[in-house]
């Protein structure tokens, strides 16, 4: 690879695509963007907290599945 060739991180590109897709889905579903001003900081933190709880559940479910396969 030449020093002048642009470096592209495939993982970052995939995350960017996921973010854009997620944004488009949210706008279509809720009709608003994250630029909305009807939520205060606590509301945003509550949403993030609830998403984090969901993530913990998904992770635990996957761990249980892996553990059951390795018994």
Which tags fit this structure?
single chain, 71 residues, mainly alpha, flat
Topology of this protein?
Layout: H1 10-30, H2 41-69
User: How many distinct helices?
Assistant: 2
Radius of gyration: 19 Å
Write down how many β-strands occur, each being a DSSP E stretch of 2 or more residues.
0
* Proportion of residues in helical segments: over 70%
Mean pLDDT: 95
| Poorly predicted spans | none
Q: In sequence order, what are the helices and strands, one letter per element?
A: HH
Largest sheet: none
Backbone structural class: mainly alpha
Q: CA-to-CA gap between the ends?
A: 46 Å
Total separate domains:
1
Overview of this protein structure:
With 71 residues, the chain is mainly alpha-helical. It has one domain (10-69). The chain has 2 helices and no strands. It has helices at 10-30, 41-69. It starts with 9 loop residues before the first helix and ends with a helix. 0% of the residues are buried. The mean pLDDT is 95.
In short:
The protein has 71 residues and is an all-alpha fold. It has two helices and no strands.
């Amino acid at each position: 690879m030449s020093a002048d060739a642009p470096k592209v991180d495939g993982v970052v590109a995939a995350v960017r695509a996921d973010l854009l897709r997620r944004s488009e889905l949210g706008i279509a579903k809720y009709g608003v963007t994250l630029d909305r001003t009807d939520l205060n900081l606590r509301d945003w933190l509550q949403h993030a907290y609830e998403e984090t709880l969901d993530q913990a559940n998904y992770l635990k479910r996957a761990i249980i599945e892996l553990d059951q396969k390795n018994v």
